[in-house]
Write a structure and sequence with these properties.
The complex is a heterotrimer.
Chain A: E1 2-11, E2 14-24, E3 29-33, H1 40-48, E4 55-60, E5 63-64, H2 70-76, E6 78-81, H3 93-104, H4 121-130, H5 146-158, E7 164-168, H6 176-193, E8 196-200, H7 204-210, E9 213-218, E10 221-226, H8 228-232, H9 235-245
Parallel strand pairs in A: 3-8, 3-9, 6-7, 7-8
Antiparallel strand pairs in A: 1-2, 1-4, 4-5, 9-10
Chain B: H1 6-14, H2 16-47, H3 54-72, H4 75-97, H5 106-128, E1 146-148, E2 151-153, H6 155-177, H7 179-189, H8 191-196, H9 201-223, H10 233-248, H11 253-273, H12 278-292
Antiparallel strand pairs in B: 1-2
Chain C: H1 3-43, H2 47-73, H3 81-98, H4 102-124, H5 129-149, H6 151-154, H7 177-200, H8 202-218, H9 224-250, H10 260-273, H11 280-298, H12 302-317, H13 321-339
Classes of the chains: A alpha/beta, B mainly alpha, C mainly alpha.
């Protein structure tokens, strides 16, 4: 259970996250939406320790994550993938996975043995299979397609066996068809891995189709939470989107 | 342990004559450093290149000035030759060599600069010989020194400080107010945008390098009457102006000015209190600034 | 057992044995290299050649250790030479003042290096990119200034003079030229082997991740600061060993050993040889020393020649020699593969 309690963060007077309180139940799939600058990425950065909250708590199964460093938070079980695929360009897919498992097994500073360690093998293999990257194991990450790099980024988070997986716009920069493939993959991972998944998404078609739970952020505050149907009919949400982005033609 | 001479330092601080003399000499060191450092900082600000060969321009400025003075006997012409010659050198250096390594590794850029430090020093050795040279003080300045509050201040020093301050003001205003200044600042922030607007970035880069080279050359020319000339003379100046830019903040003109004066004072007063550890003091200061504020005193915080 | 499980069970020992085999191969290459170097004095009476190899050992260890920082971790240190100087001065002073046996002096120097490197590293590795380069350079110059000004201990700009006592131990007499030569070769080979192990260990891959993307590394649970500090200290130890060899070779220590130019040369050697292969810096060392020796013999304008060579590498090849060779070889193989 991931519980956010009165989380706040401001940058020079601008409240990027303003007194946010939210629960993510174990095994839930939640989409975070909101107009540009709503504070979605800041929200993720606070949970994962990239930013230090000004106030509030981030409780993962009762343990407060607020103020801890990213490596620590990862070890408690919150994994993340980035909006722009964050990978290791010069390592191959397989090396990336093996090295990540090494880090997870606290073997990242082992000096007396050779890489890769045999005991990291199964987990790395499993993650590559899950994301469909096994066939590209010997490719260096830099040479992968944009979509595969996003998958590798997710694989990096997933290989650590997180309790909670945060995906910052998994479909960013993709064409329509590729988007649906990616989002099907995310849904499949959620169903098979039984983990809590929270993702940021701009494409409303995708959000309303696959997310059982939706959180709407606006100016750092929670505007609404609920099922797709509840959000669709929410006056405040329509107002926020029409008020700020109606010219972009977002259909709700 | 480390040689300290606190008595000399406190003794000087108590005497107005010594205070004036040391402060003036601190300003001289600082102003020459500023002229070199401001070019370094400009080049870094606009081109994101740490011009490791910048000291060579200072050296060439001094040698050009000396030669021009020997031939013409005119101090003004000597200064002009020093500044204009190095400006041209800077332009050629940037257009022919540096422009080829912009896209690549920072280390490659440093290596090209390092190569030219070696080459320029040897070129000077070839043309002017390896021995110490001296330009001599122009007759116009061979007058009795001024006495201010009991301290000795040669008139030439006042000229030197004056020139540097004028350069600081002109540069500061030029960058802030003029159209060229705006283009240069825009190129520093977003080169792609500037070239998309149809402005020739190559011209700006070459121009900035020429300007930086000219200022370093001017510093060398101004220093020629009061310092001895030798191949490799640019090096210690480079290291010190490098410290200045790091302390002041890479890319900041005000930072270069303040940093240069600080280092000038440290050298001037430090040489009394810590005769052998004066350089060490500068490096210590640099470490402290870097650790507490990596981007320097006046540098922009990296987000 | 399903077919897949059986396959995976077979894969595990294969991986382990592969990585084991690569270690045996490295040890074998090291032994052969050492044997060849050890036979050399019997084949030639040339003292100059042996001197050359000793200098290669000192600078090779230094340059390769710098590559652990620059090439493997992406930490461009402009002050790595301080540990070369520290090794030379530390060892020289210990031997002159305490009369310890050589191996004890060696280990004590490494202990001192560890402490100082840890203290300096703890301050430096917080900074990134060019600021890390600046602060390491500042520390280097600080140490250099200290050596110059602390005359009573270091001899100031005259350096540590009067020779370094080298009492014989275990039948090894380092004042004997051949013994010194063999010892230098042994230190070089062992040092390279250890650094190779670091580069190929799980920690070595942690370093590569930090180089590629330190932010991502911290988000898979790696303590980036700790890893950087660890490699900073480890690299300092090998640089210090290089300094010790140098001190033994010249029987003294001079301020130039701690001057920034040593760091500059280290960087240059790395660029010359190439940073993407493990042996690149070693190749660079040999190249630079040969260049040094021949050019200084032929002309007094050493700087111009060296400068032109550097320009050739920086603007012409745009990469180190070994990088160039490896890429050329890979291209050629790919070319024949397509035809075949």
């Amino acid at each position: 259970m991931l519980e956010i309690r009165s989380l706040s963060k401001s940058f020079g007077g601008v409240k990027a996250t303003d007194n946010v309180t939210l629960d993510f139940a174990d095994g839930s799939l939640t989409a975070v939406i909101g107009p540009n600058g709503a504070g979605k990425s800041t929200f993720f950065n606070l949970i994962t320790g990239a930013l230090r909250p000004d106030a509030g708590q981030i409780l993962l199964n009762g343990v407060d994550m607020a103020g801890r460093s990213p490596p620590e938070i990862v070890r408690y079980g919150i994994g993340r993938a980035f909006q722009v695929a964050s990978i290791f360009p010069s390592l191959t897919v397989e090396e990336t996975m093996l090295a990540a498992v090494c880090a997870d097994q606290r073997r990242a500073s082992v000096l007396h043995r050779r890489f890769p360690l045999a005991e990291t093998r199964d987990r790395a293999e499993h993650a590559m299979e899950l994301l469909g990257l096994a066939g590209k194991r010997n490719r260096t990450a830099a040479t992968l397609s944009h979509g595969d790099q996003k998958l590798l980024d997710i694989a990096l988070a997933l290989v650590l066996d997180p309790k909670v997986l945060l995906l910052d716009e998994p479909t960013a920069g993709m064409g329509t068809e590729e988007r649906w493939r990616m989002i099907d993959k995310v849904k499949e991972l959620w169903e098979t891995q039984k983990i809590t998944v929270v993702f940021i998404e701009h494409d409303m078609d995708i959000v309303f189709k696959i997310a059982p739970e939706i959180v709407v952020l606006c100016y750092g505050r929670i505007l609404a939470t609920g099922t797709p149907d509840a959000i669709r009919g929410n006056e405040a949400v329509i107002e926020a989107y029409l008020g700020t982005e109606h010219h972009a033609g977002v259909a709700i | 342990m480390l040689p300290l001479d606190i008595d000399a330092l406190t003794g000087c601080l108590a005497s107005s004559a010594c205070l004036v003399t040391q402060t003036t000499s601190g300003f001289i060191i600082g102003m020459l450093l500023f002229l070199v450092a401001v070019g370094l900082t400009l080049i870094f600000g606009v081109l994101k290149v740490v011009n490791f060969s910048h000291g060579a321009f200072y050296m060439f400025g001094a040698y050009f000035a000396m030669t021009a003075y020997q031939f013409t006997g005119s101090f003004a012409l000597a200064m002009l030759c020093g500044a204009a010659g190095t400006a041209l050198l800077g332009l050629i250096f940037e257009r022919v060599f540096m422009s080829r390594v912009y896209g690549s590794d920072v280390l490659m850029q440093l290596l090209v600069c390092y190569a030219f430090v070696l080459i320029f020093d040897d070129v000077v050795r070839m043309i002017w010989g390896p021995e110490f040279k001296s330009m001599g003080m122009p007759a116009a300045f061979q007058v009795a020194p001024l006495f201010i509050a009991g301290g000795v201040v040669p008139p030439y020093y006042l000229l030197l400080i004056g020139v540097a301050l004028v350069v600081a003001v002109v540069l500061g205003l030029g960058l802030a107010r003029t159209r060229i200044g705006k283009v240069i600042r825009a190129a520093a922030h977003n080169p792609g945008m500037v070239s998309a607007l149809g402005i020739n970035t190559g011209l700006i880069y070459g121009g900035v390098f020429a300007l930086g080279g000219m200022l370093a050359g001017l510093a060398g020319a101004l220093a020629a009457p009061v310092r001895s000339l030798t191949p490799g003379m640019g090096f210690s100046v480079l290291i010190e102006s490098f410290i200045v830019t790091v302390i002041g903040g890479m890319g900041s003109i005000l930072g270069a000015l303040i940093g240069a004066i600080l280092i000038g004072m440290i050298r001037s007063f430090g040489s009394l209190g810590f005769p052998l550890f004066t350089e060490g003091l500068m490096y210590l200061f640099m470490v402290i600034v870097l650790v507490s504020r990596p981007t320097g005193l006046f540098g922009k915080e990296v987000a | 057992m399903t077919e897949l499980q059986a396959e995976q069970a077979a894969v595990v020992p294969r991986i382990e044995s592969q990585s084991q085999r690569s270690r045996y191969r490295d040890v074998l290459i090291a032994l052969v290299a050492f044997a060849v170097l050890a036979i050399l004095p019997m084949l030639t009476g040339s003292k100059a050649l042996l001197d050359f190899v000793i200098r290669c050992s000192a600078f090779g260890l230094f340059a390769t250790s710098l590559n652990l920082l620059v090439g493997f971790t992406g930490m461009v240190s402009f002050g790595h030479g301080m540990f070369f100087g520290l090794g030379a001065y530390g060892f020289g002073l210990l031997m002159q003042r305490t009369g310890l046996p050589v191996p004890v002096g060696f280990v004590a120097t490494l202990v001192i290096t560890t402490l100082i490197a840890a203290a300096i590293g703890a301050i430096c590795v917080r900074l990134k990119e060019i600021y890390f380069a600046f602060v390491t350079l500042a520390f280097q110059m600080l140490i250099h200034s200290t050596i110059l000004s602390w005359v009573s201990l270091t001899g100031g700009d005259q350096g540590l003079r009067g020779g370094i006592p080298r009492p014989a131990f275990l039948g090894i007499d380092l004042s004997n030229h051949v013994h010194l030569y063999i010892t230098s070769c042994a230190l070089l080979v062992i040092g390279l082997l250890l650094m190779r192990q670091i580069a190929q260990s799980p920690f070595g891959y942690t370093l590569r991740m930090i180089r590629d993307n330190a932010t991502r590394a911290s988000f898979i649970g790696i303590d980036v600061w700790r890893a950087k500090l660890t490699i900073f200290v480890l690299a300092a130890l090998f640089a210090s060993t290089g300094g010790i060899i140098m001190a033994l070779f010249v029987s003294g220590a001079y301020p130039e050993f701690a001057y920034w130019t040593i760091s500059g040369e280290g960087i240059f050697i790395n660029m010359l040889g190439g940073v993407t292969t493990f042996l690149g810096p070693m190749v660079g060392t040999v190249l630079l020393l040969i260049l040094n020796d021949t050019v200084t013999r032929l002309t007094e304008y050493y700087g111009i020649v060296l400068g032109i060579v550097i320009l050739f590498f920086a603007i012409g090849l745009r990469k180190g020699l070994m990088d160039f060779v490896v890429e050329w070889y890979a291209r050629r193989r790919a070319g024949t593969g397509e035809r075949g």
